[in-house]
Amino acid sequence: MLGKLLRKTPIAWLQVKREKTRLLVALSGIAFADILMFFQLGLMAAAFDAATSIHYRLRGDLFLLNALSDNMQTIKPFPRSRLFQISEANGVASINTLYTGIATWRNPDNRTSWQVQVYAFNPSHPALDIPDASPQFNKLKLLNYALYDRTARPTLGNVGSQLQYAPVLSAQLNDRQIQIAGLFALGVSFASDGNLLMSDSSFLRVFPNRQPDQIDIGLVSLAADASLEQVQARLRAILPNDVLVLTKQELIDREKAYWGQNRPIGVIFGFGTIVGFLVGTVIVYQILYSDVSDHLPEYATLKAMGYSDRYLVGVVLQEAFILAILGFIPGFAISLGLYGLIAQATLLPVHMTLNRTTLVLMMTLVMCVVSGAIAMRKLQAADPADIF
Fold it and tell me: Exposed, middle or buried, 113 (CB in 10 Å: 0-12/13-18/19+)?
């Protein structure tokens, strides 16, 4: 039906562009709704990406985690002996450990305190694969030496600039002296302002309440010919229920679920997206309803000439479709610029994706079609006998 309508006189387009002011208001409203949806979805995705950036860099195929842990920032340790229980299991090639915790970093410039995430491992057997950090892991073999995240928030100090003039920089972490020996890039998150890498020995000194036999994540690398699903089932059968055996994707999904379902972030951004959708729906409905009301005699005349309700409904839906496309374009363009500004201001990984663009476009089309469907009720009341 739509194809036939488009091949005939473009009544919908003529109706849309006839009132320039009304068209501008409609496009502004749709663009605003799109910007709001892009903004909310973009920040939510950035929060998830930031929270899981370390997960993608873990070296291993399967990962052991305390069953009570639901996110990396408040992770709970478990006995190292759990790793030894599965070290000889069929399909297991090697095991490794990772320590992590939130520490208080003191800005070396003004002595203010900030929260940073610390990751620690044996530098001779790295647990992380970070391209610009891996060549520097040998530096971590020295006690109290660490690598600093160059993408940390500026409030942590001008660490990168100072390292240009000295091989190491003295700093304080949990009120203990450490040496920053290099830089790497990982990215900040909502939970921490920066990241540090250090050896497990240095970690235990900075976190004196931690025990060496209590680890945070166990990393399991499989033999080349091993089946991931079979080995996972085998390890789950060996280990007690206090430890989870997860694939990397399951570990990532668990982290995202925590931030999306158990923290206000997911609710706030999800609600904001719904509000944007509703705002756009109301604006488009008002525009279409006013258009139908103003041209009710013309629609009644078309009915009297023999045009069916189906045809007239198609005209209104075409108007809704045209408004959706025209309003989406400026909304998308402005959102691109806002993403760049937000990424620069917050240092969060806010960027446009094809999936998000498609989702917002589909939501815009649905928003406008729903508005058109509601406005049709006025159109169906266009009875030639009443009008004339």
Answer: exposed
Question: Which amino acid, 138?
Answer: N
Q: Is 139 left (phi over 0), alpha (psi -120 to 50) or beta?
A: alpha
- For residue 93, give every residue at least 6 positions away whose Cβ sits within 8 Å of its Cβ, in sequence order, or none: 221, 222, 223, 224, 226
**H or E segment and range at residue 296:** helix 296-304
pTM for the structure as a whole:
0.80
Please state whether beta strands 92-106 and 217-222 pair in parallel, antiparallel, or not at all (unpaired).
Answer: antiparallel
Q: Give the Cα separation of 251 and 229 in Å (integer).
A: 15
- The proportion of the chain whose per-residue pLDDT surpasses 70, expressed as a percent, equals 92
**pLDDT value of residue 211:** 92
* CB half-sphere exposure, 332, CA atoms < 13 A: 18
The CA distances from residue 320 to 3, 55, 135, 244, 315, in Å, are: 15, 43, 57, 50, 9
Q: Indicate the range of 177-181, 264-268, 365-369 predicted with least confidence.
A: 264-268
Query: Residue 120's beta-bridge partner residues?
Result: 99, 198
Helices 264-294/309-346 angle, 10° precision: 140
DSSP-assigned letter for residue 261:
I
Calculate the alpha carbon distances from 154 to 24, 112, 146, 172, 198 in Å.
Answer: 41, 12, 18, 16, 21
Structure tokens at 348: 């969060």
Contact 117, 195 (CB under 8 A): yes
Could you give the C-alpha distances from 254 to 44, 46, 112, 376, in angstroms and in order? 16, 16, 33, 45
Query: Which residue reads 């860099």 in tokens?
Result: 57
Dihedral pair phi/psi, residue 181, rounded to 5°: -110, 0
What is the average pLDDT value for the chain, to the nearest integer?
A: 87
Tell me how far apart the alpha carbons of residues 58 and 231 are, in angstroms, rounded to a whole number.
18
pLDDT for 382 beyond 80: no
The pLDDT tens digits of the residues spanning 176-219 come to: 999 999 999 998 887 788 999 999 999 999 999 999 999 999 99
What are residue 286's phi and psi, to 5 degrees? -60, -40
Strands (DSSP E) found in the chain: 62-66, 78-79, 92-106, 113-121, 145-149, 169-173, 176-184, 195-199, 214-215, 217-222, 243-247
